[in-house]
Amino acid sequence: MNSTASGTRLDRLSRSLTSRKGAWWWLAGAIIVILGVFGVFGQADMTTGNDQAPLGSESEQVEELLEKFSDSDEQSVLLIASRTDGADITDTDLADFQQAANDVDSNFVEDPSDPLPSDDNAIAMITAPITVGDASSETADTIKALRADVSEHMPADLDIQVTGGPAFAADIASSFDGADFTLLAVTIAIVAVLLIATYRSPVLWLIPLAVVGVADRLAANLTAAIAEATGQQFDPGIVSVLVFGAGTNYALLLISRYREELSRNDNHRSAMAAAWRKSFGAIAASNVTVVLALLGLLLAVIPRTHGLGISASVGLLVAALTALFLLPVVLVLFGRKVFWPFIPSPQKPAKHGAVWSKIAHTVMLRPAVSMVSGLIVLAVLATGLFSVKIGLDQTEQFRVKSESAEGFEVLAEHFPAGEAQPIDIIADKQATGDVIEAAENVDGVTRANPVATSTDDTLSHIMVVADPEPDTQASFDVVTDLRDTMHDLDGADAVVGGATAVDMDARDGNKHDSAVVAPIVLGVAFIVLIILLRSLLAPVLLLLINIASAAAAIGAGAWVSGLVFEQSALDVQVPVLAFMFLVALGIDYTIFLTHRARHEALEHGTKEGMARALAHTGSVITSAGIVLAAVFAALGVLPLVVLGQLGMIVCIGVLIDTVVVRSVIVPALFGLIGDKIWWPGKLPVGSA
């Protein structure tokens, strides 16, 4: 009864979307909604932060306490001077360096410090406080102006670099100047080329590309409004890639089914109605699975990971809605001639999946060999996990070296590396002396000194310089020992933060997110597959294969990262985000294939049904996989290594999933198990 009612509703809706009058009404409604979203949310500005540490972490507590100091909007930059000829710094050089700093002091809120030469006299350092903005882009403008002034007043024999915490943040922000436009342009170009290659039509590719482009702009406006209203943090580039990738996948699935129906039906409206009904379940199930999986990120403690859950879910919902309710309307209004010059018709029936039919029957002929061969490929790729390291230091964050990173490397060679990233301690003012004494007794601490008192005269800000290079295990050990020491200090109420502490807390937060998010993603996928396939055995086995595929992709990505980015480690956020995307998006293709396999199996049996399903969907799944892999690869144009690594791993994973898992392993699994794959249910053959 419920199934019949649901089918009746889908029938009515499909006819409404494709009828002569209904299509125009749906198009008019879509235009009104689109203009309304642009009008209401078009001015939304996403100016959220880039917090790395979990909310409630000790480093985040320090950031909040620093707001109680009058200089809370001030941070120190470091000017690093070295001779252009590589010789030692002389007294004359120090005087010239001091004069250059004094000449640009309008950029500073206080006079710069005196030059401090390194013990080997190779370089000298000046510390100067600047005003930082509420957003990194504002700080970037300040750093840009400072560097321009420094360059103008730089002595002839000296090379002066601006580095330090604010400079790192500014370089990250500046590196994205124009990057979002570049990413969008590259993504559109990739999708356009692949759609032209897929459809071999000078016209057809424009329609799905235009619809997905509209979806991307709608998603951008909606997510910016959400970020502005809630303060959520996320990377809009990832959302854009998801919308283009998933939206194009949905379009490929619908248009493939439409072309198939046009080969059977003289009426293109009836063909689209049938294609829409037969595609709706797979597209809706796929979208719901990924959206629910992404919403699991709301339990993440890393702000940008948490914010990505809402923004990406909104983007994917918009992509699905436009693919289901705008794309078919536009296609039906253009008619079957949009496929020119290869126009499908019953008089010229197209041959569907001859190559894929051969592949499917070859796999079914020897399923055990196919299964073992596919699993060996995954196992070999997954061995990269045994050598992978997690965590990049600040100098490794940029795909192209920045001045702040280069300056930091020079500084670390001649000064205690911790000079570039001091550790912050906030404590009760009355305990300042005890805190300094205790801190200086911690192994690895070079010095500790008070730098400010809170406006209410109750708190003291103590700066600690440690010897180990920041973002290394040795520096984390110093932070841990400092925290243990401070927490044991009676009456101090001391908390330890700073850039190194933020990175340490971020790594711990990402470990938490991996442990929490991964089971949610798997659980959502499992439930959707149970509902879709009406089986318990198939979902369990398909998820295990998906996990193996994700592990293989991350392992292969770790290898490629060393070759492409010359990075021996993955960023701390990469494993959790890569696993989530690989599992959630991989389930997409599982749904596309197995949904069709169950439908075919009702008439032809499980083994032949899977062979027919692969024959019909192999081409579209491969095309969709290539599109999705390519758009994620486009993240490599962005300047941060973390996004390049994420895009590369998802690209590799989608290709593995498309070529090995969906084409070989899954069909072989169905071939080996046969009708028992539907356990505990039974497949009523002949009931289609």
Q: What is the distance, rounded to the nearest whole angstrom, between the alpha carbons of the first and last residues?
A: 17 Å
Helix-residue proportion: 55-70%
Q: Sheet with the most strands?
A: 4 strands, antiparallel
Number of helical regions: 22
Cα radius of gyration in angstroms: 29 Å
Strand order of the largest sheet: 2-3-1-4
Structural class: alpha+beta
Q: Which strand-content bin applies to the residues?
A: 5-15%
What best-fitting shape do the alpha-carbon axes yield? Answer: elongated
Mean of pLDDT: 85
SS elements, strand count: 10
Low-confidence stretches: none
Task: Note the main attributes of this structure.
22 helices, four-stranded antiparallel sheet, 10 strands, alpha+beta, 688 residues
Overview of this protein structure:
This protein has 688 residues and is of the alpha+beta class. 64% of the residues lie in helices and 8% in strands. It has 22 helices and ten strands. Strands 2-3-1-4 form a four-stranded antiparallel sheet, with helices on both faces. Strands 7-8-6-9 form a four-stranded antiparallel sheet, sandwiched between helices. A two-stranded parallel sheet has the order 5-10. Strand 7 (445-453) and strand 8 form a beta hairpin. The longest helix is centred in the C-terminal third of the chain and has 35 residues, at 499-533. The two termini are 17 Å apart. 52% of the residues are buried. The model has no long low-confidence stretch (mean pLDDT 85).
Quick structural overview:
This protein has 688 residues and is α+β, with helices and mostly antiparallel strands. It contains 22 helices and ten strands. The chain is elongated, with a radius of gyration of 29 Å.
